[in-house]
Specification:
By secondary structure, the protein is α/β, with parallel strands linked by helices. The chain has 15 helices and 28 strands. A hairpin with a 2-residue loop joins strand 9 and strand 10. Helix 4 runs antiparallel to helix 10 and helix 12 crosses helix 15. The protein is globular and about 80 Å long.
């Protein structure tokens, strides 16, 4: 039996009940905070890139300054700092974490990078075009682990695969009709589901090797995202983040977004209104934007930035009610090194150093990959000359001309104080490890190949050419008429449209890479050394090397 309270106590209890606040309803609940940390286009830069990041000078916004930035050891420390004190966080990426990597990562087929990012706590990543550089089977090995099918187990320990999950909503395996990886993943934060959709650009087949693209279909970005949004909403998800490997070109500083242009603008406008945040990449730019009423970010390249995105989620609607972002510089001159990352890098260094540190030769000044107005670069000239030298002898192919694609040249060869250049530095300039192929083309086919440089008029791909070969192109002419036929010459003689010439390219170009389909018509193929090895041999034979006058390609208008 319950005891009765004395009248005075009963009155006091009643008064307390009257004064107590009513229980909170869902409508009154405080928003849930979620911090998303994001990177893109890491490209295996376990160590800081030589140029750091260029930003506006705080003391004079009309000029740019270089800030030392990047490196896995410093990034890991920053990620920890940006997570500290926050209940809900997730670390994600928008593609090209691997591929076109420096020697330390590339020698081991990017296993060190996958291990490093897994160790940092990366959880989700969209695929980028460079994730497909070595084909879908190799990409699946990155996810699942195991030894390389050709080179075996080279690293200091077994490769277990990524602890993070790849997402590939728009990449379909033709034989199964299914996506190569899951299209999206749902994560819960204080009971609120958040959907993350991951995908790469539709144009991926045009910028990877045709052999790597074989058997895969890359679907429209907006259509793919909107189909996934419908599925997520059917599962009760209202908060949606897109991780897309496609981007834009802003005109402002790394945390601004004035005048942004590029594919990401129109793609974002086509997204279902349910998409709240877009984490982008691919263009190697840094920006924080509002496009079509939603937050769109990108974090530069090579691990120089971590984007901190702060969301507030409404517990009632389970949707995003506010979103803001800050691109935070990975300051390599002030952030401490993470000890676990240092140990990982040292373990791989121990295996790779004997090859990486070999002296190749020297340079008198920096060899720049930046093209002039005609599309020719100092480094491009040297690389093409090296490839011609490696295949000129009759026994090596009998080449008289060499061409290389500008997209395969990834970084300058920077002069140090003593001018010395190592094998690793040469490798970093063209890190795809493509094999040289010498084949026969007629002069007419060579002209047609040169015209294919403008297949995409918004982004011409001007091939770098070896010494002795010259031509002029006219920017005012339409496609099919850019190259002036009467200007194409080899060692001072006009190239005969009917005569056959032995031409060296890399194996990526030889199968029609970058849209150069004329090269598939080449006959009498002979395979040679790898491109980085040809450059190493050239440096050994010709050092010290100085930039040559960039006058092989001329431009009118």
């Amino acid at each position: 039996m319950r005891r009765k309270l004395p009248p005075a106590l009963a009155a006091l209890a009643l008064f307390g009940a009257m004064q107590a606040p009513p229980p909170c309803s869902a409508e009154d609940a405080a928003p849930v905070d979620l911090r998303i940390l994001a990177i893109n286009d890491f490209h295996g830069y376990l160590r800081p890139p030589s140029g750091g990041i260029r930003i506006s000078d705080p003391d004079d916004v009309t000029r740019k300054i270089a800030v030392p930035a990047g490196g896995a050891e410093h990034m890991a420390t920053l990620v920890k700092e940006l997570r500290r004190g926050r209940k809900n966080t997730i670390f994600v990426a928008a593609g090209d974490l691997i591929g076109a990597s420096p020697f330390l990562s590339a020698m081991f087929h990017d296993e060190p990078t996958v291990e490093s990012l897994s160790m940092m706590g990366l959880e989700l990543a969209s695929v980028g075009n460079h994730e497909f550089d070595e084909g879908k089977a190799e990409l699946k090995r990155m996810q699942n682990g195991g030894c390389h099918p050709v080179d075996g187990c080279q690293g200091p320990h077994a490769f277990l695969g990524a602890k993070f999950h790849y997402l590939a909503a728009s990449t379909i395996e033709k034989d199964t009709g299914k996506t190569i990886f899951p299209p999206y993943e749902i994560r819960q934060f204080d009971g609120i589901p958040v959907g993350f959709i991951g995908l790469t650009l539709k144009g991926t087949p045009d910028i990877i090797s045709p052999t790597s693209a074989a058997g895969l279909e890359f679907r429209d970005e907006a259509d793919t995202v909107n189909a996934s949004v419908a599925e997520l909403k059917a599962r009760g998800v209202e908060a949606i983040v897109v991780l897309i490997h496609e981007g834009g070109f802003p005109t402002g500083d790394y945390n601004e977004c004035p005048g942004i242009s590029g594919a990401i603008v129109e793609i974002t406008k086509k997204f279902d209104s349910a998409v709240d945040v877009v984490v982008s990449g691919h263009t190697h730019q840094a920006y924080v934007c509002q496009i079509d009423g939603r937050l769109v970010t990108s974090g530069d390249k090579y691990g120089t930035l971590v984007t901190a995105i702060d969301l507030k989620l409404d517990p009632n609607t389970r949707d995003v009610v506010s979103a803001r972002a800050d691109n935070v510089i990975v300051r390599s001159n002030s952030l401490p090194k993470d000890a676990r990352q240092t140990a990982l890098i040292e373990a791989y260094d121990k295996v790779s150093a004997p090859i990486a540190n070999r002296r190749a030769g020297s340079i008198t000044e920096t060899l720049s990959r930046v093209p002039g107005a005609a599309g020719e670069s100092a480094l491009g000239d040297i690389i093409a000359d090296a490839q011609l030298a490696a295949t000129k002898a009759d026994g090596n192919g009998g080449a008289v001309i060499a061409f290389t694609n500008p997209g395969g040249i990834r970084t300058d060869i920077v002069r140090k104080e003593d001018g010395a250049v190592t094998y690793a530095e040469l490798f970093a300039s063209q890190p795809f490890r493509n094999q040289l192929v010498t084949l026969s083309l007629t002069g007419g086919q060579i002209r047609n190949m040169l015209e294919q440089q403008w297949l995409d008029p918004r982004r011409p791909r001007i091939l770098q050419v070896s010494k002795g070969f010259r031509y002029t192109w006219d920017a005012a002419k339409p496609y099919g008429e850019h190259v002036i036929a009467a200007s194409i010459s080899l060692n001072g003689e006009l190239v005969d449209p009917l005569r056959s010439y032995r031409v060296t390219v890399n194996n990526y170009l030889s199968v029609g890479g970058d849209g150069f389909t004329v090269l598939k018509e080449g006959t009498a193929q002979r395979f040679g050394v790898f491109d980085a090895d040809a450059l190493y041999t050239y440096f050994q034979a010709n050092s010290p090397i100085a930039p040559v006058a960039t006058e092989r390609i001329a431009r009118l208008n």
